[in-house]
Design a protein that fits this description.
Layout: H1 5-13, H2 20-32, H3 37-42, H4 45-51, H5 58-70, H6 73-85, E1 89-91, E2 114-118, E3 127-131, H7 138-153, E4 157-160, H8 166-176, E5 181-184, H9 203-206, E6 207-211, H10 221-233, E7 237-240, H11 255-266, E8 270-273, H12 283-290, E9 294-296, H13 301-316
Parallel strand pairs: 3-4, 3-7, 4-5, 5-6, 7-8, 8-9
Antiparallel strand pairs: 1-2, 2-6
């Protein structure tokens, strides 16, 4: 029986020594040379080295090609069948539900293939990320819910990272408004469990659960930081509700601040709730504004975000990479929720 494209892409995800950037190079070369994923698995070492010079020469090329033969086919097949039983799909660039905006971010480490379950059509819908601190203030949580609800009512899918605090409130705000949400995990998709607060909502139709990690990968701080790139890449804009400072008093990095910085590096417009709406809880927001974030009010902030994207798109046709730096806070009178 001929192996499916989904299965072959899962095999690529299982390769040792092939991170997101390497897989991005591999896919780009496949397209440029009119190859298929199946062709890659059938190449000998010399053909592999000639086809993919950017992946290394000599010993490096040998080591990477050896990763193909090191795969234990029965193990990979067993894992793939478990994914199928659990309703998980391998979403790759050659399938219709793939988010084309990811391609533009391969060089920044956006993953080429994803493990997903739920409503796969949401991957291609207009989307805005709403993110913030795990230990957000009560005010920050209220703002997050309001922004997510507004985004849903305006026809946008809400992307966030399923962490406690702002992320969870953003997902729920979208669902409570009858909208949809993308749940981007920092661990393997077969470790996903629905939080009790999500019980009233039909996640199979109103949400898509997304992971770039192997099915049973555990959560780690490193995975959470890596996941930030995917959150940004899936979104036309990133909205930071409440961020801790770049580093706390013990030198620990803020995941939300990192996500905001990643958005700027990737050319995804970054919007930041005005620090005055959060008091002392908005210190990181102020820092993000200093490095290029666009200030928005807590009340009606989403209308400002989407209005800004529409103006940029109308001017350039590219809403992802041409956000003008500045402040939208004055656009709506500086009112706060």
């Amino acid at each position: 029986m001929t192996a499916s494209a989904e299965y072959l892409w899962y095999k690529l995800l299982r390769l040792e020594g092939f991170g997101p950037v390497s897989l991005g190079i591999l896919y780009r070369t496949i397209r440029e040379q009119a190859l298929t994923v199946r062709d890659v698995f059938e190449m000998d070492e010399a053909a592999f080295s000639a086809a993919f010079p950017e992946l290394g020469r000599g010993r490096l090329a040998s080591a990477r090609h050896a990763a193909f033969s090191a795969l234990e086919e029965d193990v990979v097949l067993r894992e793939y069948r478990e994914l199928q039983i659990n309703g998980v799909h391998v979403v790759h660039p050659d399938c219709g539900c793939y988010a084309a905006r990811l391609v533009a971010h391969f060089a920044h480490g956006a993953p080429v293939a994803l493990l997903c379950r739920g409503n796969l059509r949401l991957l291609t819908q207009p989307s805005v990320a709403i993110i913030g601190s795990r230990g957000a203030s009560h005010g920050g949580l209220e703002i997050a819910g309001g922004l997510a609800s507004d985004a849903a009512l305006l026809g946008y899918n809400v992307v966030s990272g399923y962490a406690k605090g702002v992320d969870t409130r953003a997902h729920l705000g979208a669902l409570e408004a009858g909208g949809t949400t993308s749940i981007v995990l920092s661990f393997g998709i077969l470790r996903f469990s629905k939080k009790r607060a999500f019980d009233p909502f039909p996640l199979e139709s109103a949400a898509v659960v997304v992971s770039q990690f192997l099915p049973y990968a555990n959560w780690s701080a490193g995975n959470a930081m890596t996941r930030n790139k995917l959150v940004c890449a899936l979104s036309q804009a990133v909205v930071v509700v409440e961020s801790r400072p770049r580093r706390d008093g013990r030198g620990r990095a803020s995941g939300t601040f990192d996500a905001g910085k990643v958005a700027l590096q990737m050319g995804v417009p970054l919007f930041v709730v005005t620090p005055s709406a959060l008091g002392t809880d908005g210190e990181g927001n102020g820092e993000l504004l200093l490095i290029g974030g666009i200030e928005i009010p807590a009340r009606h902030g989403m209308e400002a975000v989407l209005g800004h994207l529409q103006r940029v798109e109308g001017a350039s046709g590219d809403p992802v990479s041409n956000a003008k730096q500045g402040s939208l806070f004055d656009d709506l009178g500086g009112s706060s929720r």
